[in-house]
Design goal:
The complex is a heterotrimer of chains A (about 325), B (about 325) and C (about 325).
Chain A lengths: L19 H8 L1 H7 L2 H18 L1 H4 L40 H37 L1 H15 L3 H15 L5 H32 L2 H9 L3 H37 L11 H9 L8 H28 L5
Chain B lengths: L5 E12 L2 E13 L4 E5 L6 H9 L7 E9 L2 E2 L5 H7 L4 E4 L3 H4 L6 H12 L4 H14 L5 H4 L9 H13 L5 E5 L7 H18 L2 E6 L2 H7 L2 E6 L2 E7 H6 L4 H9 L38 H5 L5 E3 L2 E3 L12
Parallel strand pairs in B: 3-8, 3-9, 6-7, 7-8
Antiparallel strand pairs in B: 1-2, 1-4, 4-5, 9-10, 10-12, 11-12
Helix pairs in contact in B: 4-5, 5-7, 7-8
Chain C lengths: L1 H28 L3 H6 L5 H10 L6 H13 L13 H36 L4 H15 L2 H15 L12 E3 L2 E3 L4 H34 L2 H8 L4 H39 L4 H10 L3 H29 L1 H9 L5
Antiparallel strand pairs in C: 1-2
Helix pairs in contact in C: 1-12, 5-6, 5-8, 5-10, 6-8, 7-8, 7-10, 8-10, 9-10, 10-11, 10-12, 11-12, 12-13
The chains are: A mainly alpha (about 325), B alpha/beta (about 325), C mainly alpha (about 325).
Chain lengths: ~325, ~325, ~325
């Protein structure tokens, strides 16, 4: 007599009875896959830590690097605390103006993450809407959108972002901080939304021809409701994967633009701007001004990319 | 040659997954005699294709054989090293898969794929292989084979492509051909031609066929014996006419009854209530008992083995025995 | 086939026209077109003359036609920053960028394809997994950071390689090359490596993904079922089918190289078009920006066209489709 195959159930015995939705989530393939993949959990933890660090920067940072009154030029060019000339109050050292690197990191991460998340959020909003419309309405709208996507996607985003940024500066020659960041977000959004539009349009076309949509229309469901409640949830999977990966890309692109001097101005620096500032001091041997912002940037980008990679594999039905 | 060509004894195949190890094949045993056509029938997910894959040694990892033996002409083949198994394939055991379009490499001409296969198994020069390839194409009923040699797979129709696939599978003159749903992707009219072709060619070569399908019509037309699979086990096996007309296992009865016939004049389509169990939820005892109208406590506790019932062998504690010949 | 070609050409011309309109708008409406033509130091009289000459009082389509005419003959006016003709500036800088891009492309493909094949074939081994982990780093590192790190390690700390400029170059007619001197090669190594990293990672991951896809396919399964040896299955069948999309996508990446060269040239003070463009954006030097835009658009359009044609040549299925007139999508 053979016993039946008993799988190990992912039930957390310590938790009290959760509402059904939560229980279904924790029993789902996605969660099980996530929990069993230690690297992904690590990546998610790091990403979460970075977001929290950036979010709570004003409370976490030991100093305020932008309050000119607190800066002391005598404290400038200090190496990290564990080195010979370092001081404990400046754990990662200071730059040429006496600004604390660690604080600069936290605030810089804040800017970088803000720009990245905002631009991706906007891109998703615009792109998904455009894609849904094009896929559902079809015809000229669809054709026009696709040609636009083709053209825009064949150019590397950094180029277009540079151009838009350059034009923005031409139009607003005295760009203050917020405006500069807004132009930056606009530049990144401008290049990115086409990706989502194309993906969503493809999925919408596929879903539109499926039987459940036709059945719903027969029953008299309005097109808008159909789009929102039936087609949209089925289309969001690839969008989620793309968005996660694009956050990493957006952060890197922003850093690149800032490094090139056409991004966030140094009065309220992002990680890229910090690296640019530090670059000038590399030859003097003051590596910490560049290394720590650089490491932070890489850490954020890597964890987000890892998450995106895992999500893509987890949501890919063919790999099951 | 005496004795069966292929013997499968208590074959078990399992898949380790995140949610635990799933047993996809559980104690599958059957024989195929030389020159015989054995049909393997069952619903999707019953394990038919896996059986074929295990025999030819092409189980996709992480799937693996975890028990049992497979013997070809009395020699064990389930524990052979990779290279030895590779030499078996195509030469002793051949395989045909479902979709002829995706089975052929779209970037190579048909002739090139044939010659490549021929020269792998037989010591032929390029010219000789080419001649043989043309001959093979002719045997599979493809008109103007010389011209066809230089064409690409997408230039053939569905039925023609499957003929090419058959030619490729038989190029090494294997003794056993595993045909996994060879007609499912084809038009109905073409299906009959392909089945007849397969039958004719294999009989001419004296090869056996393991025909995997869910189409009872094909089984009835072509096979000598048939095995019915359910949830990774064989529930009934016997000569085709007996299994179809005198099924002993309730599942087989249900299967035969659910095939609509032209004689039926209205009324509901018969179906077996319920569905195949998920691999991680296979019931204890007899796997079919939750859906079986005759299930008893014994069915829930003990798993039945294949036992002779009238003229077929069925794995059931309460096999259906017809008192008079129908 | 001919109709396919014509349709793609028509599309290309359309794209160029759109880009041209964009550049034209830049030229005319953002910044002062007269200054764009004569530079900042012209006298009022000269400006008035030019105003009339340029026909700035004519309707916009006429001006656009004029712009296109000038553009086709390579005349984009004078650089606002340097006062020299834009076309001359670009011609001077073109060889530097192209050499950098080509060397980087060779590195990226030469290392990326074999690595991709290797990690696909040995996917469960630790060394393949390690390579994939490192590749993740390659995608997460911004190009400028790679450049900075390379400079720090190889120039500042080890002192092996120079960190800026092209070194000694040789003039071959209109083309100045750094590839004929040892010094030139020493100078090109770090920037090319920097530029190549991202592309290498992309190529490797792409090859791996396509190869895995091919290895899962039915024709590979059937090839194995026919008893073909591993070597034939992996390289004759799987790799051959993989290379088709890989080569075409890599061709498109060549455009990306030219774009990313902007960053690399800035980090390494490489005298190419990229650094010219950055300086133009910072200034802002509108004629240079407009000219760069048109030139890059042309390069991309040409590359896309060639790749599309290549695709049709390499994949026999598409020859039929192309003949029928269907597009690749």
């Amino acid at each position: 007599m053979k016993e039946r195959a008993r799988p190990t159930e992912p039930r957390t015995s310590a938790t009290p009875v959760l509402p059904l939705r939560w229980r279904r989530w924790f029993a789902s393939d996605l969660w099980v896959d996530f929990v069993h993949s230690p690297l992904t959990v690590l990546a998610a933890a790091i990403a979460l830590a970075c977001v929290c660090g950036a979010l709570f920067a004003p409370w976490l940072a030991p100093h305020d690097p932008f309050d000119l009154a607190t800066l002391d030029l005598g404290d400038s060019h200090l190496p990290p605390a564990w080195m010979a000339d370092g001081r404990a109050t400046y754990p990662l050292g200071t730059d040429d103006q006496g600004r604390d690197i660690l604080s600069g990191l936290l605030y810089g991460a804040r800017i970088s993450l803000t720009v990245g998340l905002c631009s991706v959020g906007l891109s998703v909003l615009i792109g998904v809407t455009a894609g849904l419309l094009a896929g559902f309405v079809g015809g000229v709208v669809d054709a026009a959108l696709m040609r636009l996507c083709d053209v825009m996607l064949s150019f590397p985003p950094i180029l277009i972002a540079l151009l838009v940024d350059g034009i923005g500066r031409l139009i607003f020659p005295q760009a203050r901080d917020v405006l500069a960041i807004a132009v930056l977000i606009f530049a990144l959004t401008f290049t990115d939304w086409v990706r989502y539009a194309r993906t969503v349009r493809g999925s919408t076309l596929v879903e539109r021809h499926k039987e459940y949509v036709q059945a719903a229309r027969l029953v008299g469901v309005s097109r808008w409701r159909l789009l929102r409640r039936h087609v949209l949830p089925n289309v969001l999977g690839p969008v989620l994967v793309l968005a996660t990966i694009q956050v990493g890309q957006a952060i890197i692109t922003e850093a690149t633009l800032s490094f090139l001097g056409v991004g966030v101005p140094p009065t309220n620096p992002s990680l890229g701007t910090l690296i640019r500032i530090g670059n000038d001091f590399l030859y003097a041997g003051e590596w910490w001004i560049t290394l720590f912002p650089g490491a932070a940037l890489v850490l954020i980008a890597m964890s987000v990319n890892l998450l995106g990679d895992w999500l893509r594999d987890a949501l890919n039905p063919r790999l099951k | 040659m005496t004795g069966p060509l292929l013997e499968v004894r208590e074959l078990c195949v399992e898949f380790p997954t995140r949610r635990g190890t799933l047993r996809a094949l559980d104690g599958v045993s059957f024989d195929i005699a030389p020159g015989e056509i054995l049909g393997i029938v069952g619903e999707s997910g019953a394990g038919k294709s896996l059986t074929g894959a295990a025999i030819i040694g092409l189980l996709e990892p992480p799937g693996r054989v975890c028990g049992g033996q497979i013997l070809l002409e009395g020699q064990r083949i389930d524990d052979l090293p990779r290279e030895s198994m590779r030499r078996l394939r195509g030469k002793q055991i051949g395989a045909i898969f479902q979709d002829p379009l995706t089975s052929l490499n779209p970037l190579y001409t048909v002739g090139r794929q044939l010659v490549e296969t021929l020269r792998t198994h037989l010591p032929l020069s390029a010219a000789q292989a080419r001649e043989r390839a043309i001959e093979l194409l002719r045997q599979t009923g493809i008109p103007a084979p010389e011209a066809r040699m230089a064409q690409y797979p997408h230039e053939f129709s569905g039925g023609m492509r499957q003929r090419v696939v058959i030619a490729l599978a038989l190029a090494g003159e294997p003794k056993l051909v595993i045909a996994d749903e060879p007609t499912t992707a084809l038009d109905v009219a073409v299906q009959a031609q392909i089945i007849r072709l397969l039958r004719g060619l294999t009989q001419a070569q004296g090869a056996s066929v393991m025909l995997i399908t869910h189409d009872m019509g094909v089984i009835a037309e072509t096979c000598d014996r048939v095995a019915v699979m359910y949830a990774g086990r064989i529930v009934e096996i016997g000569p085709v006419a007996e299994v179809i007309h005198h099924p002993a296992h309730p599942y087989t009865v249900g299967l035969m009854a659910s095939v609509p016939s032209l004689a039926d004049t209205g009324g509901r389509l018969a179906q077996i209530p319920g569905a195949l169990p998920r691999l991680d939820e296979i019931p204890a005892g007899c796997a079919f008992h939750p859906r079986c109208p005759k299930a008893s406590q014994r069915c829930r506790d003990e798993r039945p083995e294949l036992a002779l019932v009238q003229r077929t062998r069925a794995a059931c504690w309460w096999p259906i025995v017809k008192s008079a010949a129908a | 086939m001919l109709s396919f070609l014509l349709r793609r050409l028509a599309q290309a011309v359309l794209v160029m026209l759109v880009v041209g309109m964009g550049a034209f708008s830049l030229f005319q409406y953002v910044g002062d077109p007269v200054s764009n033509m004569v530079g900042q130091d012209a006298t009022p009289a000269q400006r008035e003359q030019l105003h009339a000459d340029l026909g700035l009082d004519r309707p916009a389509p006429v001006q656009f036609a004029r712009f296109v005419g000038h553009a086709l003959s390579g005349d984009f006016g004078l650089s606002l920053r340097q006062g020299r003709e834009v076309s001359v500036l670009i011609a001077e800088r073109l060889p530097a960028t192209l050499e950098l891009a080509i060397v980087a492309a060779l590195i990226a493909m030469g290392a990326g394809i074999p690595l991709g094949v290797y990690t696909a074939l040995r996917r469960r081994h630790w060394d393949a997994k390690l390579t994939m982990a490192v590749s993740l780093l390659g995608v997460s590192l911004p190009t400028f950071l790679i450049g900075i790190v390379l400079i720090e390690v190889f120039s500042v700390l080890l002192g092996w390689l120079p960190s800026f400029g092209r070194g000694t170059t040789v003039q071959l007619g209109a083309w100045s090359t750094g590839l004929l001197t040892a010094d030139g090669w020493r100078h090109i190594v770090l920037p090319a490596a920097t530029l190549a990293v991202y592309q290498l990672t992309l190529v490797m991951r792409l090859v791996r993904a396509e190869m895995l896809e091919a290895l899962r396919s039915d024709y590979v399964k059937f090839a194995r079922a026919r008893g073909l040896p591993d070597r034939v299955v992996h390289f004759g069948h799987a790799l051959r089918n993989t290379l088709v999309p890989v080569l075409t996508i890599s061709g498109l990446q060549l455009g990306g190289l030219i774009a990313f060269s902007i960053i690399t040239e800035t980090v390494f003070a490489w005298p190419g078009m990229g650094s010219l463009f950055i300086q133009a954006v910072q200034f802002p030097d509108v004629p240079v920006m407009a000219a760069y835009l048109c030139l890059i658009a042309l390069v991309f359009v040409v590359i896309n066209l060639i790749v599309d044609l290549l695709y049709a040549v390499v994949d026999p299925r598409l020859r039929v489709q192309a003949a029928i007139g269907g597009a690749r999508r």
